[in-house]
Amino acid sequence: MKGISVIIPYYKGEKYIKETIETVNRALEISSMNYEIIIINDSPEEDISRYLILSSKLRIINNQLNEGIAYSRNKGKKLANYSHLHFIDQDDWIEENFYKKVYSYIQKSYDAIIFNYNLCEKNKLTTGYNLLFSQYIKILSPKQMFKYGNFFKTIGQLIVKKEAFSEFIETETMGSDDAYLFIDLFWNRKSKKIKYIKEPLFNYRVHENNYTEKTDFFKSSAECFHKYKKINKEVAKYEKYLLKRSSGDLYLIYMGRIIRLLTRHDYVSLYWRKLL
């Protein structure tokens, strides 16, 4: 059925989850779309049923054990009733006209809609991509992502047709499952209808408990790669780039940084100190 299922994995996220649900629900209500909100509770010891009052279209599904974010996203995908999916993290939020914009492209049968974003660090918003990224994304390919790293900030930027991607890759070292979703999406991209929206209608929050600050991305990516290779055997030709980057190949590392400096406003504000 045409519409959108918003899937929010939850794990000890009480600080921000109410705002996330409220902004999602408000934007959905004014979008003219069929919709549902599914929270996958990966904190089985925590009762979060109090949030049901925030939306009549909200469902909460409790995992029996703490299974991890990729498992929760896959579970949400299986339970989703609508044609398009939006996976949003528990600490991010959206602008009011986000789903209005999404709806216009779902009507045009796009496989994926990718949004620009705002980075929220210490209550200050910085737009993610600059105008150059609007051109760069037209030539972006899985090969470049393996050579220079993932160019997308978060899966919340993405609205995707349910049939347009494989399941999230579940690994022992978590962190790269969403990167491989983008790789899978951009594989044979000419056969897919992908739209980039330059307006930053999605907000990514930086805080001390960010998942991305705690993971070993090289290890996670290597584990994802070997599992993804079973789904897509052609990807084996890019393993050399993954190995070079993980071993500290300066050319690939600095080329990735240069591309980010040229295409992203937020890269300077968030990472410049690390380069010094």
Automatic annotation (TrEMBL):
The keyword Transferase applies. InterPro entries: Glyco_trans_2-like, Nucleotide-diphossugar_trans. Pfam families: Glycos_transf_2. It comes from the Bacteria. Its EC number is 2.4.-.-. Residues 5-165 form the Glycosyltransferase 2-like domain. Signal peptide: none annotated. The keyword Glycosyltransferase applies. It is an enzyme of class 2 (transferase). Keywords: Glycosyltransferase, Transferase. One of its GO terms (molecular function) is glycosyltransferase activity. Belongs to the glycosyltransferase 2 family. This is Glycosyltransferase family 2 protein.
